[in-house]
Design brief:
Belongs to the AHA1 family. With 254 residues, the chain is α+β, with helices and mostly antiparallel strands. Helices cover 43% and strands 29% of the residues. The chain contains eight helices and ten strands.
């Protein structure tokens, strides 16, 4: 097809010829050397370029010189620029989507990290585990965040709306008070309370849910502490609860 710049640049051999002529006019031999195709093929490719007006031939004596006619490629260049703009907008959209997805993933990860879930199993009855979490005498044996700490005080008003208060004392005699208000009391399977730690302590105002289930003499206890402000608070409370539950393990297995 005459004057078809797209056909002119459709073949890699012709594109290499155009690239060489981009450096300036050259003889046919200079433009077509080392292309790895036969002379009839060279003749065919040159004919297509000339018919499209992309290449202009000038004969001087027995020498045939070729020159590039950039104006013949304007339509192709315009189309390519238009397509490039479209693709760039598409890639921008993809990048924005990926960025949003990454942000969503980060948000989801943060959301997941702001809830602590710990599960332990015991060879004890569900009633015994429920008592361990609600009987002040038993609570004083284990509810402290360290193996050498102690629970100085434990108060329990076991009813929905009732108050829970635990005072832990570390090895230096420093006391830490945690309080809660019960939201769920279902013996022996469920407890729930709103957690209030020391002023400024991570997790103040968050929620604790305890699920207790017994099967074949083994009782599973799942503690979920949710609504924490960030993953730092979650990590801090996971460590604290882990130490407390390590103490509970020793009390229950005695």
């Amino acid at each position: 097809m005459v004057n078809d710049p797209f056909r002119a640049v459709a073949h890699p051999i012709r594109r290499r010829m155009i690239e060489r002529l981009g450096n300036g006019p050259a003889t046919v031999g200079e433009v077509t050397s080392d292309l790895g195709v036969s002379k009839p093929a060279i003749t065919k490719h040159l004919k297509i370029l000339e018919e499209a007006g992309v290449v202009v031939r000038r004969v001087v004596g027995r020498t045939h010189r070729l020159a590039l006619n950039p104006a013949a490629l304007i339509d192709a260049v315009t189309w390519v620029d238009h397509q490039r703009a479209l693709w760039e907008r598409m890639f921008d959209t993809v990048e924005e989507h990926l960025a949003d997805k990454e942000q969503t993933t980060m948000t989801d990860t943060t959301t997941r990290s702001t809830a602590v879930r710990i599960e332990r199993t015991y060879r004890a009855s569900a009633d015994a585990l429920f008592d361990a979490w609600t009987n002040p005498e038993v609570i004083r044996k284990w509810w402290h965040a360290g193996p050498d700490w102690e629970t100085a005080e434990a108060e329990v008003d076991l009813r929905v709306g009732g108050r829970l208060r635990v005072v832990m004392r570390d090895t230096d005699g420093i006391e830490y008070t945690a309080t809660g208000v019960y939201t769920v009391v279902e013996r022996p399977s469920r407890l729930g309370w709103i957690w209030h730690g020391e002023e400024g302590e991570a997790g103040t105002g968050s929620r604790c849910d305890l699920e207790i289930s017994e099967q074949d003499g083994v009782t599973a206890v799942v503690l979920t502490h949710s609504g924490l402000p960030d993953h730092h608070a979650a990590a801090e409370l996971r460590e604290g609860w882990g130490l407390c539950l390590d103490n509970l393990d020793k009390v229950i297995t005695r």
